[in-house]
Amino acid sequence: MDTHTVINELQFKGIRSSGPGGQHVNKTASKVEVSFNVMASEGLSAIEKERLSEKLTNRITSEGLLVLQCGETRSQHRNKAIVLERLLELLKQNLKKPKPRNKTKPSKRAVERRLKAKREKALKKSNRKPPKID
């Protein structure tokens, strides 16, 4: 992933933020929305695009855009920095190769211990039953 190219491809939009804030909220567009077209990006390789579209299927829109918003602070610049950091972190986390799982078998001792405990529990439960009258 070429971070510089990805950052240049981002589209930022200022939106009026909801919630408390008095007159300031009504006048300024401090909430920032960033959209990133994953499939049209030149900063990602074909394998990376495939991996992202697979892992982020729930977050990518039908147009192929990955959209994030931030309206935490009253400053548009701070919100822009926060949303940019979040987007890059999201991309980095989802581009990591999954670690292959090593299949392992339980040790002989562990199997014996489990079976012994199983027998003891069965014996305990069978001893609770009333005796059979023949």
Folded structure, characterized:
The structure is a single chain. With 134 residues, this protein is of the alpha+beta class. It has a domain at 3-95: Double Stranded RNA Binding Domain (2-Layer Sandwich). 47% of the residues lie in helices and 13% in strands. The protein contains 5 helices and 3 strands; from the N terminus they run αβαβαβαα. The chain has helices at residues 3-9, 23-27, 46-55, 76-95, 108-128; strands at 11-15, 31-37, 65-70. Strands 1-2-3 form a 3-stranded antiparallel β-sheet, with helices on one face. The chain is elongated. The model has no long low-confidence stretch (mean pLDDT 89).
Q: What is the element string, with H for helices and E for strands?
A: HEHEHEHH
Strand content: 5-15%
Can you name the CATH architecture of the domain at 3-95? 2-Layer Sandwich
SS elements, strand count: 3
For this structure, what is the CATH class of the domain at 3-95?
Alpha Beta
* Principal-axes shape call: elongated
Mean pLDDT: 89
CATH topology tier name of the domain at 3-95 = Double Stranded RNA Binding Domain
Largest sheet: 3 strands, antiparallel
Distance between the termini: 78 Å
Uncertain parts: none
- By secondary-structure content and strand pairing, the structural class works out as alpha+beta
Helix content: 40-55%
